[in-house]
Design a protein that fits this description.
By secondary structure, the chain is mainly α. It contains four helices and no strands. It starts with 7 loop residues before the first helix and ends with a helix.
Length: 144
């Protein structure tokens, strides 16, 4: 098995871990900063998380296919491209959901989403870097 290929269950685990860690940070922070109840922020986080997990699985598979086709290594530039494209897709998908749930304009939802994006760009990079490091250690430890 190629150490860069992930199975569907592993992709699902990766997506769930990514979202759970993010929600543990963002729900209390968003509630405090925006003055909304933790319940309202929690429901929004679950909706956005469901969208993001689905996007994560689809985007991850497509991006890894591109990596293999182009024979890219996971350099800083490739990781930045991955994070930027992933988050850009989420902005496009999530702004209407945020506007609807928070009963705000698309412009306000976009500004809120930009704030969330400013959190997620470095978070995505760091989370995936750590995940890959742990995964590689686990993968090579179990190869022996």
């Amino acid at each position: 098995m190629n150490p860069h290929e992930k199975t569907l269950p592993e992709r699902a685990l990766h997506a769930v871990l990514y979202e759970v860690c993010a929600m543990l940070i963002l729900v209390p922070l968003g509630s405090w900063l925006l003055g909304h109840s933790p319940a309202q922020m929690g429901v929004l986080a679950i909706m956005l998380s469901t969208i993001a997990m689905s996007w994560n699985v689809v985007f991850g598979a497509l991006f890894e296919r591109l990596e293999r086709a182009r024979q890219w290594q996971r350099t800083v530039a490739v990781r930045c491209l991955h994070a930027t494209l992933f988050e850009g897709g989420l902005v496009f998908i999530c702004v209407p959901v945020v506007a609807w749930w928070m009963a705000i304009s698309y412009w306000q939802a976009l500004l809120l989403d930009i704030g969330i994006l400013l959190f997620f760009l470095p978070y995505t990079y760091v989370f995936n870097w750590l995940y890959d490091a742990v995964r590689q250690r686990y993968f090579f430890q179990h190869q022996e």
